[in-house]
Design brief:
The protein is α+β, with helices and mostly antiparallel strands and 267 residues long. Helix 4 runs parallel beside helix 5. It starts with 5 loop residues before the first helix and ends in a 13-residue tail after the last strand. It folds into 2 domains: 114 residues, Nucleic acid-binding proteins (OB fold (Dihydrolipoamide Acetyltransferase, E2P)); 120 residues, OB fold (Dihydrolipoamide Acetyltransferase, E2P). A hairpin with a 3-residue loop joins strand 10 and strand 11.
C-alpha cells in the first residue's frame, strides 16, 4: 500500500484542526450569558437558576476513586456562584441537557479546562466542539505526565491496544487506548481501524461514516492512517473483541508518522 511522504503527512496533521470544523460550535465571539448555578444533579451536569441544564462540553468527569469524589466536590462548591455561560448550537439531549462552557472566575477561568488540568476530567470530544478550547488535550497530557487526579490511579491509565483483557474489563466505560493501526477496513457505513494482527479478538476502533468523511476532508485516509501510532478515546464495547466507537474526529490523536519513527504530537 503506498505511503504518504513525511513532509506531506506533517502538512495534513498540522491543518487537521482547522480543516475539520465541528458541526456545532461554541459561539466564541458572542457575549456569554451571566447565570447563577442553582444545583449540581447526580450526573454532574449544572442546573442554572434560569432552569437550563448544562453539560460541560468536551470533557468527561472522573467517576471513580478519589478523583471522582474530588470532581464532584469541585462542582458542589460552585452552587450559588455566578458564571458566564456559552452554549453549543445543539438540541438538548434526552435528559434535557445542552452542552456548553462555563467561565467561573478570573482564578478558575474555563471550568472544563480547570478540571482537566487537575486530573478531575478526561477530554471527551464526543459530538461536542472543542473550537473554543483547542488546548484541552495538551492540558490532559500535562496532568497525565504529572500523575494528577485520576491519572494517579493505575486503573485509569491509558491502555495499550494489545491489553485486550484490560480493555474488555472497561466495557461500558470511557477509556483512552493507544497503539499502532495494523489494518484499515473501509466499508459503506463505517471504517474499522484494527490495532491487532488477528481478525478476531484484537482491539478495534470503529469510525462512523460522518467522522470518516471529516478525516478524509483533511487528507487522513486509509493510506495515511495505516501503520500510524495513535490514541483513541470513547466508550468500550464488545464486538469481535474489545472495540471503541469514535464519536468525533478530534477523538483520534496521531502520535507518530510511522510506527518506527519517534512520537510527533498532533499540533
Amino acid at each position: 500500500m503506498p505511503r504518504l511522504s513525511y513532509t506531506v503527512l506533517v502538512a495534513f496533521v498540522a491543518s487537521f484542526a482547522a480543516v475539520i470544523a465541528p458541526a456545532a460550535a461554541l459561539d466564541c465571539a458572542a457575549a456569554p450569558a451571566s447565570e447563577r448555578i442553582a444545583a449540581v444533579p447526580a450526573r454532574g451536569e449544572v442546573l442554572l437558576e434560569s432552569g437550563a441544564t448544562i453539560r460541560l462540553a468536551g470533557v468527561r468527569l472522573a467517576d471513580a476513586g478519589p478523583a471522582g469524589v474530588a470532581a464532584r466536590a469541585a462542582l458542589d462548591r460552585l452552587v450559588g456562584a455566578r458564571v458566564a455561560v456559552r452554549t453549543l448550537d445543539a438540541e438538548p439531549d434526552r435528559w434535557g441537557r445542552r452542552p456548553g462552557a462555563l467561565e467561573v472566575s478570573a482564578e478558575v477561568g474555563d471550568l472544563a479546562a480547570d478540571l482537566v488540568t487537575r486530573g478531575l476530567a478526561r477530554v471527551d470530544p464526543g459530538p461536542d466542539a472543542l473550537l473554543c478550547r483547542p488546548g484541552l488535550l495538551d492540558l490532559e497530557a500535562a496532568a497525565r505526565r504529572d500523575g494528577l487526579g485520576l491519572w494517579a490511579d493505575p486503573a485509569e491509565r491509558v491502555l495499550r491496544a494489545e491489553e485486550t483483557e484490560a480493555i474488555l474489563a472497561r466495557a461500558g466505560r470511557f477509556a483512552v487506548v493507544e497503539g499502532v493501526v495494523r489494518r484499515v477496513g473501509v466499508r459503506e457505513r463505517r471504517t474499522y481501524l484494527d490495532f491487532g494482527f488477528a481478525w478476531e479478538g484484537g482491539f478495534t476502533a470503529i469510525v462512523p461514516d460522518d467522522v470518516w468523511a471529516r478525516l478524509g476532508a483533511s487528507g487522513l485516509d486509509a493510506d495515511a492512517l495505516e501503520a500510524r501510532r495513535m490514541r483513541v478515546r470513547g466508550i468500550i464495547e464488545v464486538w469481535r473483541g474489545p472495540a471503541l466507537r469514535v464519536g468525533a474526529a478530534e477523538a483520534i490523536e496521531i502520535l507518530s508518522m510511522t510506527s518506527a519513527q519517534p512520537r510527533r504530537p498532533l499540533p
